[in-house]
Each structure stands twice: as structure tokens, then as C-alpha cells.
């Protein structure tokens, strides 16, 4: 079994309840987005003149991780990440505080996630292994890749 398949199978063990799966379908991408917004909001110590934020810097190793898991997952997560940056630009264009919006989404979605796991009756996977904080978005992407009949 490939590494990605074993990670997704293990992650899926605590995501079998339909309500929990629906909650995760909303909360996982929202948490990924909100994490990017919060990193984007941290003032950069370097490269600020070039418009580079901590979110840009940390996106590189995260996307590298996804490409190591699978090319299609890496490509999908790259598109998701670009979409997150585009949405941040929309927030800025409308005068919405990026860090406040990101923090509100982050807190609300984690509350929703823990509610889902309470309903499921199982602990979140990341309590076992922190790597599952990155596997969650890959798991979400795999659902979409399967819908488009793309092998991951």
C-alpha cells in the first residue's frame, strides 16, 4: 500500500459518521484558508518589500509535502492555496481585516470540527500524529479528485 493510501485510510477511520464527514467537508478547507490568513497577517521580518508574507514562505514546504504524497494532490492543493491568496486579496479589496476574519473562521471551524468528532465518538486524528493536520486537506482533496475520476 502506498504511503498516501495508508494515511488516508487511517485518517478516514475517525471520519465515518456522515454528519462528521459533512462538517469536515466545510471545516477542513476553511481551517486551511484561515491558517493561511493568520500566517499572512504576521508581519514579515524580511522580503516585505517584495510582498512576501509568512504564508508565502510556509506554503512552499507544505506544498512540497503534498507533492511528495502525490502529484495530483500537490497540484490540487496548489490550486487551493492560490485560491486562498486570491480570497485574501478580495478581503483586502473590501476593507475587511484579514487577521480578524481568519481568526473568526479558525475558531468557529475548530469548534465545529470538535463537535463533529463528538458526534463521531472518536478523537481527531491529529491527536495521535500531528502530520494529520496536513493529511486532512489532502483527504478533502481526494474526495474531489475521485469525483472527477482523477487517480491520486
N- and C-termini, Cα separation: 13 Å
**Helix count?**
6
Shape: globular
Alpha-beta classification: mainly alpha
Given as residue ranges, the uncertain stretches (5+ residues, pLDDT < 50) are: none
What Rg, in angstroms, do the CA atoms define?
Answer: 16 Å
Number of strands: 0
On the 0-100 scale, what is the average pLDDT? 94
Element pattern in H and E = HHHHHH
Helical percentage: over 70%
Strand content: under 5%
Largest sheet: none
Explain this structure to me?
The relative contact order is 0.20. This protein starts with a helix and ends in a 5-residue tail after the last helix. The protein has 152 residues and is an all-alpha fold. Helix 2 (18-41) crosses helix 3. The protein has helices at residues 3-12, 18-41, 54-69, 71-93, 98-120, 132-147. 74% of the residues lie in helices and 0% in strands. It is globular and about 45 Å long. The protein has 6 helices and no strands.
In short:
The protein is mainly α. Helix content is 74%, strand content 0%.
Helix-strand layout with pairing:
Layout: H1 3-12, H2 18-41, H3 54-69, H4 71-93, H5 98-120, H6 132-147
Helix pairs in contact: 1-6, 2-3, 2-5, 3-4, 4-6
Please supply descriptive tags for the structure shown above.
152 residues, mainly alpha, 0% strand, globular
